[in-house]
């Protein structure tokens, strides 16, 4: 790769750091571990900058590298992170959201339910809905067929809706129980 | 009606073309339950875009930016102190900032903010990564050089009397007609336009001026995200930008922060491009 092209590629790479951090955080949860993962990925990307095709999606290329690093080195932290997320959700569920604006409520509901998804579902939604990758780019990052992306995405969205609906039922139940307590 | 799952996902992710979307929307109209389900999934999808947005707002740890910049200094043939190599001829920057037309200078300023757009500051109050002014100028200058020196079929600028040539060229490059909006009702006359360089894809620029010599700029670029309503994306260093998305393109109107007409002008431009692209 010519030097000027390499400089441009590095510049594009630096601009993607916030998105790399967000993707890493979705995989690893712990902020410091996530930044470690990003740094390792940056080093690997810079060593192989010549293999990036100018004009292709730099973000998707970086996500492939980061995901491979994640699969190789940090999978063991996930179980602990999931348990912490569930505890956080249980605490938040005891607080009524009835005073919040409808859109803010929707965002909060989605964020809470998102944390409860399986890793596979969370990852597919992160890549397509959060980071805006196409199905084809997502297939490349995950090393699966486009058809697999489609079916995984459909299942993830369905599951997200189920979790949100369950959360709403739990909130409604809590409000009824509180009202009964006040009347008694 | 049992929804076609594949088409539903395509609908949510804006992968349907205009005809397919209209057909799908008509099917949803005939089935309120399916329509409600599809709307809920779309709302969830919009909310998902905010997941982790706080991470994008965080200051990037220095060790991460240094990892990239150190590699640049090592590989770029810089001197012992790691200063940028002298590959960008000084004449390019001198030409861009001194002795050039007002249109060129305005274009360079917009290119600086567009570089910020590529960094992901839309909707956020400040840049996540903070390059120095020299870095921004050097990178913008280099992008300008690469566009005009290498892509030598492009003229540097099109004045108002050559507006139709710019339209033809845009049609050829982007396969779609994009024209300047008519802001005459608000006293703003079209001055001229050009294509502006950006490392990850060029964008269009139109300049307008009123009789008080007050100027606003209309900027547009190809994008894949769904259409979005107008929002005030940026008030930064005396510049106010209002931004929106139509089908296939993003738009921003820039004006002086003290110019109370920026809002009206952007709404006029919004309606113009909505009719052009979304057919409403």
Explained architecture:
The complex is a heterodimer of chains A (184) and B (280). Chain A has helices at 3-15, 17-28, 31-47, 58-73, 78-93, 102-116, 119-130, 135-142, 146-183. Chain A has 184 residues and is an all-alpha fold. Chain A is 80% helix and 0% strand. The termini of chain A are far apart. Chain A is elongated, with a radius of gyration of 20 Å. The relative contact order of chain B is 0.08. In chain B, helix 2 packs across helix 3 (32-48) and helix 7 crosses helix 8. The two termini of chain B are 28 Å apart. The radius of gyration of chain B is 21 Å and the shape is globular. Helices cover 46% and strands 18% of the residues of chain B. Chain B has a seven-stranded antiparallel beta sheet, with helices on both faces. With 280 residues, chain B is of the alpha+beta class. In chain B, strand 3 and strand 4 (215-222) form a beta hairpin. Chain B is built from ten helices and seven strands. Chains A and B meet through helix 1, helix 2, helix 3, helix 6 and helix 7 of A and helix 1, helix 3, helix 5 and helix 8 of B.
- Total of DSSP H or I helical runs spanning 4+ residues of chain B: 10
> What spatial form of chain B do the alpha-carbon principal axes imply?
globular
Low-confidence stretches of chain A: 77-100
Largest sheet properties of chain A: none
Radius of gyration of chain A: 20 Å
The dominant shape of chain A is: elongated
Nearest-integer average pLDDT of chain B: 72
Overall mean confidence score, pLDDT of chain A: 81
User: What's the alpha carbon Rg of chain B, rounded to whole Å?
Assistant: 21 Å
The number of E-state strands of chain B comes to 7
* Largest sheet features of chain B: 7 strands, antiparallel
Oligomer class? heterodimer
Helix content of chain B: 40-55%
Ends distance of chain A: 76 Å
């Amino acid at each position: 790769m010519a030097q000027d092209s390499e400089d441009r590629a590095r510049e594009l790479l630096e601009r993607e750091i916030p998105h790399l951090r967000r993707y890493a955080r979705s995989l690893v949860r712990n902020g410091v571990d996530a930044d470690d993962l990003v740094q390792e990925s940056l080093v690997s990307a810079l060593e192989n900058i010549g293999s990036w095709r100018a004009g292709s999606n730099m973000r998707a290329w970086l996500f492939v590298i980061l995901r491979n690093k994640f699969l190789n080195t940090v999978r063991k932290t996930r179980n602990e992170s999931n348990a912490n997320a569930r505890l956080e959700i249980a605490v938040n569920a005891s607080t009524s959201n009835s005073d919040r604006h409808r859109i803010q409520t929707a965002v909060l509901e989605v964020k809470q339910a998102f944390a409860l998804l399986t890793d596979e579902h969370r990852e597919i939604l992160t890549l397509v809905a959060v980071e805006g990758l196409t199905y084809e780019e997502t297939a490349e990052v995950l090393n699966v067929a486009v058809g697999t992306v489609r079916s995984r995405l459909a299942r993830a969205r369905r599951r997200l809706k189920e979790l949100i609906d369950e959360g709403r039922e739990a909130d409604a139940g809590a409000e009824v129980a509180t009202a009964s307590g006040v009347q008694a | 009606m049992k929804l076609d799952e594949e088409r539903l996902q395509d609908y949510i992710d804006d992968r349907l073309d205009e005809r397919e979307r209209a057909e799908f929307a008509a099917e949803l109209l005939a089935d309120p339950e399916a329509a409600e389900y599809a709307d809920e999934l779309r709302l969830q999808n919009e909310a998902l875009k905010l997941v982790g947005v706080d991470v994008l707002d965080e200051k990037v740890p220095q060790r991460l930016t240094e990892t990239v910049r150190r590699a640049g200094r090592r590989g770029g043939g810089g001197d012992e102190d790691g200063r940028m190599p002298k590959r960008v001829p000084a004449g390019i920057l001198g030409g861009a900032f001194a002795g050039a037309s007002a249109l060129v200078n305005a274009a360079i300023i917009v290119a600086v903010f567009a570089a910020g757009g590529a960094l992901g500051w839309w909707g956020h109050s400040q840049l996540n990564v903070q390059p120095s002014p020299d870095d921004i100028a050097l990178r913008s200058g280099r992008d300008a050089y690469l566009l005009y020196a290498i892509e030598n079929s492009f003229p540097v600028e099109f004045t108002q009397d050559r507006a139709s040539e710019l339209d033809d060229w845009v049609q050829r490059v982007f396969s779609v007609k994009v024209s300047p909006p008519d802001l005459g009702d608000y006293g703003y006359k079209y001055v001229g336009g050009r294509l502006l360089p950006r490392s990850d894809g060029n964008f269009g620029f139109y300049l307008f001026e009123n009789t008080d010599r007050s100027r606003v700029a209309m900027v547009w670029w190809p994008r894949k995200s769904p259409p979005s309503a107008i929002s005030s994306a940026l008030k930064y260093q005396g510049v106010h930008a209002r931004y929106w998305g139509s089908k296939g393109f993003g738009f921003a109107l820039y004006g002086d922060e003290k110019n109370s007409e920026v809002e009206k002008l952007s709404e006029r431009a919004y309606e113009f491009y909505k009719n052009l692209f979304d057919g409403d």
